[in-house]
Amino acid sequence: MHPKANKGLVMDEKYWNTLYGETYDIDGVFNAKKHASYVKSLLTLMETKVQSLGDFGFGKAALLREFVKALKPARVIAVEPSPERVEELRTKPWIQNVHIQIHNSTLQDFNPPYLKYAPLDLIICNSVFQYMEDGDIKKVTEKLSKSTRFLYFTVPTKKDYERMKKQIAFSDPYAFVRSTEFYRRILSKHFNFVGYNLLESKYQNPPVFEEELFKF
To answer: Which pLDDT tens digit goes with each residue over 148-178?
Structure first.
């Protein structure tokens, strides 16, 4: 199941070798341990524990590996549309003692009914939305908000791509380039922004992050 991105480009092994080769230090890959440490510290401060974890669009699984090590969840769900990345994860020694379900699926198609009744504590969705159509983003955002308490989320915006082009000559021919306002408008319908990369579902009741000044 090779998903298509902008301009009909197929996200096959050429995509992974181009964007995740030795040319760039991709955020969330080279510094995955720091991301996991940050989330653990923030949620510990808020006295909330992550018993269940998902990574939707796990790619090379660098974030997933470090979040599992840091948070030690009892249950893990990993979703990825690339069959090569799915098979790669299944061979990793570190997953052998993890209670993990690995699914070869797009986020658009992944819709297990049990998540509606037992949402995960935390879902990672790192650099995935830029490869989706506008209509799919709206549907997936709502679905994610009902599937998790917290979402650790990143997506590059138009200004981010302009900055990366200028600083490191990076461009992504597979991605849709959208404004910050586009993503904020859709995300804010279903999530509150409560920290760097961290969103809390508006369906979380009662909320963990209650101080209004730092929630928007």
So the answer is: 999 999 999 999 999 989 998 888 888 999 9
**180-187 vs 134-145: helix axis angle to the nearest 10?**
40
- Alpha-carbon distance of 76 to 78, in angstroms, equals 7
Tens digit of each residue's pLDDT (9 = 90 or more) over 83-133 = 999 999 999 999 999 999 999 999 999 999 899 889 999 999 999 999 999
Q: Using CB atoms within 10 Å of the CB of residue 69, give its burial: 0 to 12 exposed, 13 to 18 middle, 19+ buried.
A: middle
> Across the strands, what pairs with 12?
none
Task: Take residue 152 and report the two structure tokens written for it.
Answer: 């650790």
Entry pTM: 0.90
Q: What is the DSSP string of 126-180?
A: ES-GGGS-HHHHHHHHHHHHTTEEEEEEE---HHHHHHHHHHH----TTSPP--H
Distance in angstroms (rounded) separating the CA atoms of residues 186 and 120 = 21
Identify residue 192 by its one-letter amino acid code.
N
Domains of the chain: 6-214 (3.40.50.150)
SS3 content of the chain, % helix, strand, coil (to 5): 40, 20, 40
Q: Give CA–CA dist 138/40, Å, rounded.
A: 28
